[in-house]
Amino acid sequence: MCDLMPAPQPAEKRGKMKKLRRTLSESFRSIAFKKEDSSFDEICVTKMSTRGCQGTDSVIKPLDTIPEDKKVRVQRTQSGFDPFEKPTSQVKRVHSENNACINAKSSSAGKESPKLRRHSSPSSPTSPKFGKADSYEKLEKLGEGSYATVYKGKSKVNGKLVALKVIRLQEEEGTPFTAIREASLLKGLKHANIVLLHDIIHTKETLTLVFEYVHTDLCQYMDKHPGGLHPDNVKLFLFQLLRGLSYIHQRYILHRDLKPQNLLISDTGELKLADFGLARAKSVPSHTYSNEVVTLWYRPPDVLLGSTDYSTCLDMWGVGCIFIEMIQGVAAFPGMKDIQDQLERIFLVLGTPSEDTWPGVNSLPHFKADRFTVYSPKKLRQAWNKLGYVDHAEELASRFLQCFPKNRLSAQAALNHEYFSNLPPRLWELQDMSSIFTVPNVKLQTESGDSIQVCSRKNSHGKASSGSKH
Questions:
Q1: d(Cα 407, Cα 133) in Å, to the nearest integer?
Q2: Do 224 and 326 contact (CB within 8 A), yes or no?
Q3: DSSP state of 330
Q4: More confident residue, 158 or 395
Q5: What is the pLDDT of residue 88?
Q6: What is the mean pLDDT of residues 371-396?
Q7: For the whole model, what pTM was predicted?
Q8: In this predicted model, what pLDDT tens digit does every residue of 451-465 receive, in sequence order?
Q9: Could you give the CA distance from residue 424 to residue 413 in angstroms, rounded to a whole number?
Q10: How far apart, in Å, are the Cα atoms of 67 and each of 3, 22, 169, 320?
Q11: CA pair distance 31, 105, nearest whole angstrom
């Protein structure tokens, strides 16, 4: 069963909401972010992807804390939510002076690693330091939007590649609320399958989030390998996705915008959850959750029907859609018109819900039985035939794609599904910051069109998996 989180608190007075925003803004300025040498030694790769996969524009609205009159339409590039679109609500700053949000200088010079001392000598006031704008060199622009520009960069402190998300600040509007939320959540998340936030730099004109650099995303990876990915690679990508989600769900954090372009892929095959601009921690007070989250193709039916009482189940629907897309090579529910069309595509496969199959569906704001054609549920392999070629894939996908939210499998439970039974047992014993590729013989298989050769591996039953695509 999907993990449940406490229902949102009743509506607060407008004055309390203003106080919350002021508190968040103050907290953001005082973020203390410790730099650990090991974090920078383990930087792999990275890129903030700015493109979408397929599809048409959908409406993504901000969180419920944003007043109705401030909500605006956010465009997507093809099927993907534009990560550079200007946020719909921004938090004003009390102070306008320059200050760095993070000063990662070690509290004791004696604790600095020799590696850091080589790059930044404490005796030299002009040496590059973390938290300073001149500590990073911009190499090339990766993408630009109305509120931020992303660059590939290089750290002058340790020479590592980084992704610089430069957010332009306007004096009358202050710091974007989504930037505050993204930085606040990411600064506390340390996991191999979550993109690492290295640094935050605040000046009068800009706010820069410095991420590890990852060279591509799952959307681009699938574009390069059309027709569906190698089944073994699908399994490794899905395992990593569930591993990252289990980590944040156990900390009562929802991602709320799962889609292929928000899953970064390193050159070794490591998958990392990225773009936490729509993420929400359950501890943040609010009168309700927004029902306008998650890109349309990956949005669950309960949210499409107007539900605002959701939990980790929201993310698990997106997992099911991404799982099918990796196997089949096409989006599971590529709605082409609007929310009504999206729901029709879902019901065509899973069946039109009723009170018997989905208790409480009649009470959802946008559900009217006479608006939808009555469909009977089908086997998933009838819609996506490649599910039938992979052991246990159809059963696992069906556990994710449940219209009734509480029936969806949780991330932690999914990791123990029989679909993963032929993976090395050591994968379940890894520490949070350890990559699955540290386990011997765990490697990506060669996809069609790949230039590198990957050794075949043996599963738990001793059968060798070939490097050719099935």
A1: 48
A2: no
A3: S
A4: 395
A5: 37
A6: 96
A7: 0.69
A8: 333 333 333 333 333
A9: 17
A10: 29, 15, 21, 32
A11: 14
Residues 6+ apart with CB under 8 A from 107: none
Q: What is the pLDDT of residues 132-152, one digit of tens each?
A: 878 899 999 988 766 778 899
Residue found by looking up tokens 């710091």 in the block: 175
DSSP 427-470: GGG--TT--GGGSTT--PPPPTT--S----EE-TTSPEEPSS--
- Contacts made by residues 104-108, CB under 8 angstroms, sequence distance 24+: 104/33, 104/34, 104/35, 104/129, 104/130, 104/131, 104/199, 105/129, 105/130, 105/131, 106/35
Q: Collapsing DSSP states into helix, strand and coil, what is residue 272?
A: strand
Q: Which residue has the tokens 């590529």?
A: 334
Examine the pLDDT at 69 and tell me if it is beyond 90. Answer: no
pLDDT at 305 exceeding the cut of 70: yes
> What's the topology of domain 33-212?
Phosphorylase Kinase; domain 1 (3.30.200)
The two tokens of residue 140 are: 């090339």
What is the band of 292 on the pLDDT scale with cuts at 50, 70, 90? very low
* Domain spans, the chain: 33-212, 225-458
Contact partners, residue 337, CB within 8 Å, separation at least 6 = 56
Q: If pLDDT is split at 50, 70 and 90, which confidence band does 358 have? A: very high
Q: What is the mean pLDDT of residues 336-340?
A: 87
Concatenating the DSSP letter of every residue in 25-76 gives HHHHHT------HHHHHT-----------S---------TTS-GGG-----E
Structure tokens at 286: 């609010």
In this structure, of 134-143, 273-282, 297-306, 331-340, the range with the lowest mean pLDDT score is 273-282
Residues designated catalytic: 257
Q: Please indicate whether residue 338 or residue 113 has the higher confidence score (pLDDT).
A: 338
225-458 CATH pick, 3.30.1490.110, 1.10.510.10, 3.40.50.2300, 3.30.465.10: 1.10.510.10
Tokens representing 371 are: 């608006």
The token pair at 238 is 């899905």
Rg of the chain taking only CA atoms, in angstroms: 23
The whole-angstrom separation of Cα 33 and Cα 14 is 31
